[in-house]
Each structure stands twice: as C-alpha cells, then as structure tokens.
Write a structure and sequence with these properties.
Elements lengths: L1 H13 L1 H4 L2 H8 L5 E5 L5 H8 L3 E6 L8 E2 L12 E7 L8 H11 E10 L4 H10 L9 H10 L2 E14 H8 L3 H11 L8 E13 L2
Parallel strand pairs: 1-2, 1-4, 2-3, 4-5
Antiparallel strand pairs: 5-7, 6-7
Helix pairs in contact: 6-9
C-alpha cells in the first residue's frame, strides 16, 4: 500500500481540499509549544502551516513518495516518550491499520497535546463507498469511539468540533484512481451527499486532547 500512496503523492500535495480550509486553520491554531510531529503527513500541509507559525516540525509517513523526514507508520513512531510538544494528524487515521496502537504511540511521544482531524463515521453505506473509492480505507469512527481511543491512551479530551467539508466528487475519485463501475457504485452509495454540482460533502471531526501531567 505504501507504493500506492507514493504514486498519489503529487495529487495530495496539490489538492486544494487538503492544502487549505477552516479545518486546517483550526487544527494548527490548537498547536502548543515549539516542537511538533506531523503523523501521516501526506502532502505536508499541516507541517507547512506549523512551520509558518514558527514550529520546529518533523514529518512522518510510511510512503517514501510523501518525502517525509521519517519513514514510519503511525503504529510504530521511532521517537522517545514526550519528544514533541504537539503531535498532529489530519485526514489520515481512517487509513491506520491499528487505530488504538497509533493513538497510543501519538500519546506516548506527545509532551502537551495531540491534535486529530479525520472523517466522522456516517453509515455502513458510506464506509462501503469509501472502500470502493480507496482500498486503503480501513474505517471512520464516531465521536464516542474517538473519545474512547484517546482516553484509553491517557489523554484528556479538551475540545471537539465538527465541520462540513465539501470537495469535487470527480477530483476526489481521480486522486485515488476510482473509475468505471466502482466510481458509479460509489456515487450511488453516497446518494444525496453529492449535490447537483457534483460536490461531495462529509463531516470532519477535530479533537484537541491533552497529555496527563
């Protein structure tokens, strides 16, 4: 799967829906301290914004094509406990094979806060559509599930915000190579979540959680 993500690297680096948005603004506004780790950095947009704010940032991703500073998965972060003031991940956890292990690792290397943004669980129909659209999709989670993951990792949830995020359905499919019958079935499963202008809207959950003192 890392080869597949390497092939997609340029598309995600150039994607407007990943490069900008109120969700990105909010996530980086929550960062604290001077050092940060961007987990599953993808196109590097969180890292770019944090660096603009003066943070010293290390990027981590398992796909070589993403050109991260460190080649590693979220489930196996090669840093000591409390290495970073802020640990963040954006629109990536639904790809993590072991979500609890990944959150545990993020909590372990965080000194102050862990910042999460991901797609909020909607329904099993949407989960099927997500897997058709992108076979690397594992699962999206509900707010209750997220709270459980974070609290079990020793983090206190301080703030949760839900935001609608719209993107062009065609461009969304093109980034992952979803074509033909799979694309049509994806459209069918998403139903009225796709508007007359072919815009697909889902809900992102953003969470700020703090490391116990």
């Amino acid at each position: 799967m890392t080869d597949l993500w390497s092939e997609r690297a340029e598309a995600y680096a150039e994607s407007d829906t990943h490069r900008e948005g109120r969700d990105l603004d909010l996530l980086v506004s929550w960062a604290e301290g001077k050092t940060a780790l961007d987990v599953a950095t993808g196109g590097g947009h969180v890292a770019r914004r944090l660096r603009e704010q003066g943070f010293e940032v290390i990027t981590l991703d398992p796909a070589p094509g993403m050109r991260a500073d460190v080649l590693a998965s979220a489930e196996h972060i090669p840093f000591a406990d409390g290495s970073f003031d802020t640990v963040a991940t954006r629109i990536a956890p639904h790809h993590f094979v072991d979500i609890r292990a990944a959150i545990g690792e993020m909590a372990r290397v965080a000194g102050r806060v862990v910042l999460i943004e991901d797609t909020l669980y909607d329904s099993e129909e949407v989960e099927e559509a997500e897997r058709l659209h992108d076979p690397t999709h594992v699962r999206s989670y509900s707010e209750q599930e997220w709270r459980s993951f974070l609290e079990d990792a020793g983090l206190g949830v301080e703030e949760v915000e839900l935001q609608k995020k719209r993107r062009d359905f065609g461009a969304w499919c093109e980034r992952t190579g979803c074509t033909g019958a799979e694309r049509e079935r994806t459209r069918e499963l998403l139903g009225n979540r796709i508007d007359a202008q072919s815009g697909y809207t889902d809900t992102k959950i953003l969470i700020r959680a703090r490391k116990a003192a």
